[in-house]
Amino acid sequence: MVNNQLLNPKSIAIIGASNDTRKPGGNMLKNILAGGFAGNLYAVNPKEERVQGIKSFSEVMEIPQTDLAILAIPAKYCPETVKILAEEKNTKAFIIISAGFGEAGEQGKQWEQQIVSTVNSVDGCLIGPNCIGVITENYKGVFTAPVPQFNPKGCDLISGSGATAVFIMEAGMALGVSFANVFSVGNAAQTGVEDILEYMDENFDAEKDPFIKLLYLETISNPQKLLKHSSSLIKKGAKIAAIKAGSTAEGSRAATSHTGAIASSDMTVRALFHKAGIVYCSSREELLSVASIFNYKKLEGKNIAIITHAGGSAVMLADELSKGGLKVPEISGPDAEKLKTFLYPGSSVANPIDFLATGTAEQLGIIIDYCEHKFDNIDAMAVVFGSPGLFDVENVYNVLSVKLEICNKPIFPVLPSVINAQREIQSFLKKGHINFPDEVVLGKALSQVFNTPEPVSEAISLPKIDIEKIRGVINTASEGYLDAAQTQKLLDAAGIPRVTELVENSKEKMLAAMDSLEFPVVMKVVGPLHKSDAKGVVLNITSKEEVSETFDRLMQIDSATAVMVQPQLAGLELFVGVMKEPGFNHTILCGLGGIFIEVLNDVSAGLSPISNNEAQQMVQSLRGYKLIQGARGREGVNENQFVEIIQRLSALVEAAPEITEMDINPLIGTRKNIVAVDARVRVGH
Amino acid sequence: MVNNQLLNPKSIAIIGASNDTRKPGGNMLKNILAGGFAGNLYAVNPKEERVQGIKSFSEVMEIPQTDLAILAIPAKYCPETVKILAEEKNTKAFIIISAGFGEAGEQGKQWEQQIVSTVNSVDGCLIGPNCIGVITENYKGVFTAPVPQFNPKGCDLISGSGATAVFIMEAGMALGVSFANVFSVGNAAQTGVEDILEYMDENFDAEKDPFIKLLYLETISNPQKLLKHSSSLIKKGAKIAAIKAGSTAEGSRAATSHTGAIASSDMTVRALFHKAGIVYCSSREELLSVASIFNYKKLEGKNIAIITHAGGSAVMLADELSKGGLKVPEISGPDAEKLKTFLYPGSSVANPIDFLATGTAEQLGIIIDYCEHKFDNIDAMAVVFGSPGLFDVENVYNVLSVKLEICNKPIFPVLPSVINAQREIQSFLKKGHINFPDEVVLGKALSQVFNTPEPVSEAISLPKIDIEKIRGVINTASEGYLDAAQTQKLLDAAGIPRVTELVENSKEKMLAAMDSLEFPVVMKVVGPLHKSDAKGVVLNITSKEEVSETFDRLMQIDSATAVMVQPQLAGLELFVGVMKEPGFNHTILCGLGGIFIEVLNDVSAGLSPISNNEAQQMVQSLRGYKLIQGARGREGVNENQFVEIIQRLSALVEAAPEITEMDINPLIGTRKNIVAVDARVRVGH
């Protein structure tokens, strides 16, 4: 777990330090020396007297007490070395860059476990193994290049892949993105991305700490910790963007029900990010574009002014903003007319504000002043200004630079002339700004940021349900699918209304009981998993004679154990469900039933517990939402009740976390009422 | 229209040439001089004796006979200057870079028209006005920087925006993309993007001409010309990618029917690109990524091997390929085992082929050899190789460079270390290769290229229809919506089956006629445009009494003129429609009816005439296609007949191009049969 010795060590020992800077142990020392580490630095290398100018110890036993040890020696020597450091040298922080551990097989995994247990025994922190290291304000503990200058206003980067961290830094630095702390967690034997976020959250200092956090994740081993500390950091003012790679790899879990088949682990990850307020990214480019946006002032509304001297870029940017739900509103009125008088004839101020190829730096300044002070329907500006290669644009970029500092509305610079204006762009970046070389990439990232909601507030109040009754069912249930009676009890205890139904395996009893139901009814086979595939559902039954015939036919279906009869309800088919990814809270799903899930996969997901507001958003983000509202003469459904049922389902799985899978499909909804018609629950223990 | 004097002039006159290279006329001359133009060059500038070392004429009358004139003088002087050149100097090609023409107002438009008519009178070619100029193999006629070296294997660039052309060249050159001919058409007063493509097509020389064409379009003034010559060029082996900016701007056409409301001009543009085989792009970055893919060998299948020494990039690339419909198939078997013996322990060959951070150049060579020669389930390779900054990767990139030349399967290089390996990447690019700095951007572009179909073959055979009968209806119809009888005649003549129906405004007549129909029936009001909004559709009518009551109620609806009765059919609701964008052939639409178009906007579009294969693709690309096939116990529809109806609709509008809008909504389909239930046709003249 992260500690002060890792972040701000008074002494660092590099085990395996080398004079050869093409070796990790050599380049690590070089970077730490070049980074001007202020504490004591020890090298251990049995073959050298001095390494890169500092005294080399021939074995680890010889070095003085040391806060942080960085190991760049073969895996097999690491467990013993760590033991000596931990027990004899009071070392509390370890970075192991060596590979050959858990990722390499069983022996490596054992070494890893040994090391973790040693480190834990002294309450220490272990980063890695199999990582590129750590950069903090105090030292440059990575063996790779580039080593970005520490900028407290830059981005913290926490990465599950060392090479990817390097590639993110390289691509970022070329855009003008700067970095603060960098953590490469490697195999994350003891400390994962979540643990570092936890530390950052619990020790957050709004005066000093970097506000932007970029994450690269391949696995999320502790999703609830990620959720908790990401939300908390964002509520404190931080901004987090993350890549979760591996989104399309199929999970290994067998999908035996609808829910299993339609849900994917990517859906759960997105639900978590959504709840936490993390911006979901799919590439290094997206991550860095979002980071660039984070670097500017916060976008507080959706109305963007596009200021340009080149029409094409403005059109493409307007297209992209509009696709992403942002707006490029028309600008008109006396102020717009006044602005026009400062521009050359032929300029347009309607938005995009196009001040022509001949537009000047002064004009740009005036336009920005008008957008900042006069145009109330503008929340932010995107300024596209390149160079056709005829003249210097430094004066333009100087104006832009000043405006970036003094304006309250965010301004996003698109400087596309990466060749013609290379020098001027470099000088602009050196002032601490970031460039968006492609206007559409900017537009997309802007929408991603704008469309990511604030983190869900922690105080989520769920509807009251009968927990005792639920525990009664769950505690006595065996693993697998619950039977109809158990399922009904759960629904009743959770306060989810359900249709009256009779289940009988004797035709005589069923016919006798029919008097309690109104025709038409629907009859379903009990037993087979996919009833409609087996033609085990019969609609529109209007007489006892038909009930009798249908009963006989249904009982002949393979695995039929009984027949169920229900009143046939008219209304809109709805669906709610639950899935469970290991480590995550339950994912609650909702949708329209029937073809909407079976054909169109139109499903919303949220991570339990679901707030009322989240449940509303889930419902409203369905592609078929208009049907819930009622479209084109069709009756809609009671939306508040649907939202409530989603929350009740969430309350149910909070009370019964053993539920691994659940479908209520369909529910039938009208304007008045929604009732569950069929449900299936699976429990594990 | 493009001519030889434009492409390969023996002499060029620059009117408005200047010693000041910050002025367009100055920089134009500088670029032409620096580009080593081999013919005679004349400058016209009344204030100078010599301009940039060449003799300057004081007026245009004084210059010798000249093939090509480039005008960089104020707009108002251009018409007279062009007249003198055309009539006295035998000039047949003109490039006008000056602004202040059609884009600036009425006076400018007049000047533009005068110039066009002068140029046309001598059968000449006019590029511009308001453009950056032209680059061909023979001269560098642009006033902007950068001026890319002419590379016959590079990309032709034809742009409707000069600044965007500059920004595309700049961003492209930074990636290693090279350029051949560049045309900036400006206002396209005489020569547009389509005309240049026409010339390229009609004069295509497969031995010499560039194969890659990049287009930036803001308007498509002659869509059919664009379609014809793009398809033709692509069939000759060319590859075309294009941006059509302005995709979200709402067209000005009033949308008075369903079809109008759901279709957009972007849909029509996409249909055209799809039919032509043009790769649709939305940004400069996408255009250049696709151009980069075009630069490599053609992807002949969907199976990609990802070869990497860095896991993270491989995971993100695999995600993106999979989202785009491409595959990263497992590699296994004896050859895979053999390959593994050449790699370091811990490497994986299962695909991604991960040969670890320590992987060598030799190993990369062996892996590529295996993918090229041994693994038959691999169609292409993506090689991700960066540098953590420890050692030189030039030997790796040398191996890659050689393999790029000799392998038959395409290899796409992702070299992400834009800082650490800057020098090695530059040297790789100098060999004529292109780098993909971001793996996900590559993955997306690869899918875009792979998912763009071949151009539709020109010989489209449409079903035989009764053209005489159709012309009879159309020729006598007045502008606006056709009445029910006319509409039925058109459907019958086009061979589109329709439901039997009665239309009456007298209740007595309707009741009398009811004997010819079977109950249940559906009754609809005739008159109002949106029947279901007005509650003008009543289902499930089972008796004459109900017919009588319903008739009275429907006739009370606003604008009701009559009532229609039809047998109520059971089956899947389908939809076909037609829209017409100015200049384009008709766009034919198809979809599932009801909520699929009203709520989900699930519509496919194709440009008439629609081939059988295209119609099939349209149907199969619907999100709800599974319902047409029959899903989960529901009966599907006769897909062949649906395809035929789409083609019949296409044949109808080919015979009656005056149709500006048409819906058949719904059609009711079963496995056996599809019939039109309601239709609406609007004609213009």
Description:
Two copies of one chain form a homodimer. Chain A has 685 residues and is of the alpha/beta class. Among the domains of chain A are: 4-131, NAD(P)-binding Rossmann-like Domain (Rossmann fold, 3-Layer(aba) Sandwich), CATH 3.40.50; 140-295, Rossmann fold (3-Layer(aba) Sandwich); 304-451, 3-Layer(aba) Sandwich (Rossmann fold), CATH 3.40.50.261. Chain A has 24 helices and 29 strands. In chain A, the strands form five sheets. A seven-stranded mixed sheet of chain A has the order 3-4-2-1-5-6-7, sandwiched between helices. A seven-stranded mixed sheet of chain A has the order 9-8-11-10-12-13-14, with helices on both faces. In chain A, strands 19, 24, 25, 26, 27, 28 and 29 form a seven-stranded antiparallel sheet that branches. In chain A, helix 4 (106-121) links the parallel strand 6 and strand 7. In chain A, helix 14 (394-406) runs parallel beside helix 15 and helix 17 runs antiparallel to helix 18. The longest helix of chain A has 17 residues, at 639-655. Chain A starts with a helix and ends with a strand.
Low-confidence segments of chain A, ≥5 residues, pLDDT <50? 250-263
Overall body shape of chain A: flat
Q: Considering the protein shown, what is the CATH homologous superfamily of the domain at 140-295 in chain A?
A: Succinyl-CoA synthetase domains
Gyration radius of chain A, rounded: 31 Å
Average pLDDT of chain A, rounded to a whole number, is 92
Which strand order does the major sheet of chain A show? 3-4-2-1-5-6-7
Give me the secondary-structure category of chain A. Answer: alpha/beta
**Gap between N and C termini of chain A:** 30 Å
Number of strands of chain A: 29
Approximate helicity band of chain A: 25-40%
Largest sheet of chain A: 7 strands, mixed
